[in-house]
Amino acid sequence: MSYIDNIIAVIERRDAGQPEFLQAAKEVLDSLRIITDQDSVYEKAGLLERLIEPERAIVFRVPWIDDAGKVQVNRGFRVQFSSAIGPYKGGLRFHPSVNLSIIKFLGFEQIFKNSLTGLPIGGGKGGSDFDPKGKSDNEVMRFCQSFMTELYRHIGPDTDVPAGDIGVGGREIGFMYGQYKRIVNAFEGVLTGKGIGWGGSLARTEATGYGLVYIVDEYLKVNGDGFKGKKVAISGSGNVAIFAAEKAYALGATVVSMTDSNGFVYHKEGINLETIKDIKLLNRERLSKYAEVHKDSVYTDAAKGRVWDIACDIALPCATQNELLLEDAKNLAANGCKIVAEGANMPTSMDATEYLLSKGIAFFPGKAANAGGVATSALEMSQNSARLSWSFEEVDAKLKNIMAGIFQSIDSASKEYGKPGNFMVGANIAGFKKVAKAMLDQGVI
Ligand code: GLU
Question: For residue 161, which atom of ligand 1 is closest to its CA?
Fold first, then answer.
């Protein structure tokens, strides 16, 4: 058995109940065959055995009291996967689906994503099965305070710096930061995605969505093309989706769809972003409201149709894991889609990815395409350490450079290892090499 097959057998046995983690880890390990078959240094150093095991995984009780006075208990997680190239860095997800498998898959992906940014950040992820949907602000605050009352002892500006993810935005970061500061009595850069005026970075909110469009634009430019006149289908309607749409419009494209967990809207004339921002960011309402405001748009219930049936040039899945499946990939290809770039983490299933690649569709994996968010978090950390704040333009220019750099590194890795245009393999290899070198330099730890 090859080294990689041995490692896959280990995780299949030891992490058998963790399907999302297995999916993410197998995708990366498969891409690394080309490297580990050529050079035995990794096997001799037991490097992959170490890489697939988190440095630490913390699971904790989060008790809080709801508005009716009833005690509620959720489960909290922080998986500190790799500190090889910097302090653990990655978001917190609050969603009822959260479990150890999901946090491990996200933490594992984060190692390579953070490495690709070129910035000194390790990989981690956390969250809870708490559902902020339908909760009052006070309930969310009590939950966040309780969550941080345990988490604070495991994090720190040079140890582990969490941020947002699904279900964790500016409101939640604010409540958690307030509680952290109160406990440790220090105003320090322990979380990113903070508010402007108390340590947050301009352009952090926009960064993931903007970065997604920047990397695709870089690819289009290299091929003598651009966003102008392109039809873009987007899933999701959160931070990533909204700001990807904003940048796509700014570059001359038309965005024809958005989704939430209940269904999707198709608006041929172009999704109105002000309406989406009001519905989703301001009022925290359901997307079906959009079709009540824009009568020429069509809302379809999730049980009755798929957003990926819509014809488009570029598809940007920005909702959640495994939302673009094999049938969807077939429909996208049949309808002329040329580019799929992941704004979410692992939205495309493995068989769908393989199908897209086999059809010559340019596929940008999340660990490269959505890295703009965490990269700008690292810029927030730099500003906090220097006690400075940079202008929006300054941060945005750095973000654009970082995304162009990521494109170049995944493109050249794909060529160097004989898979030109396969950005999945390119991203896995380029992300891995930097982390592997750091691990080899630092000895068996
Ligand atoms: N949750 C985001 C991600 O998946 C951002 C993480 C961060 O800024 O630390 O990369």
Answer: 9
Strand order in the sheet with 56-65: 56-65, 71-82, 122-128, 88-94, 160-163
pLDDT tens column, 160-177: 999 999 999 999 999 999
pLDDT at 152 exceeding the cut of 90: yes
Cα dihedral 366→108→237→329 (10° resolution): 50
Ligand 1: distance of its center to the CA of 69 in Å? 34
* Beta strands 122-128 and 71-82, pairing class: antiparallel
- Test site for ligand 1: of 106, 110, 119, 168, most ligand atoms within 8 A of the Cβ: 110
Split at pLDDT 50, 70, 90, the class of 133 is: very high
Pocket flag, ligand 1, residue 191 (CB < 6 Å) = no
Residue 297 C-alpha to ligand 1 middle, in angstroms? Answer: 32
Query: Which residues pair with residue 255 across a beta bridge?
Result: 232
Tell me, in angstroms, the distance from the centre of ligand 1 to residue 252's CA: 27
* pLDDT tens track for 112-127: 999 999 999 999 999 9
For residues 353 and 355, what is the distance between their CA atoms, to the nearest angstrom?
5
pTM of structure: 0.97
> Which tokens is 145 given?
């305070």
pLDDT of residue 1: 85
Output Rg (C-alpha) for the chain, integer angstroms.
21
- pLDDT value for 333: 98
Whether residue 331 is predicted with pLDDT greater than 90 in this model: the reply is yes
Q: What is the pLDDT of residues 366-407, one digit of tens each?
A: 999 999 999 999 999 999 999 999 999 999 999 999 999 999
Say yes or no: CB of residue 280 within 6 Å of ligand 1.
Answer: no
Question: Hey, which residues are catalytic here?
Answer: 125
Domains belonging to the chain, first-starting first, are 3-187 (3.40.50.10860), 205-360 (3.40.50.720)
Contact 264, 307 (CB under 8 A): yes
Q: At what angle do helices 371-386 and 100-116 cross, to 10 degrees?
A: 70
Compute the half-sphere exposure of residue 420: CA atoms within 13 Å on the CB side of its CA. Answer: 1
Cα 234 to chain centroid distance, Å, stands at: 15
Instruction: Kindly give the distance from the C-alpha atom of residue 388 to the centroid of ligand 1, in angstroms, as a whole number.
Output: 22
Which residue in this structure is represented by tokens 């580990």? 36
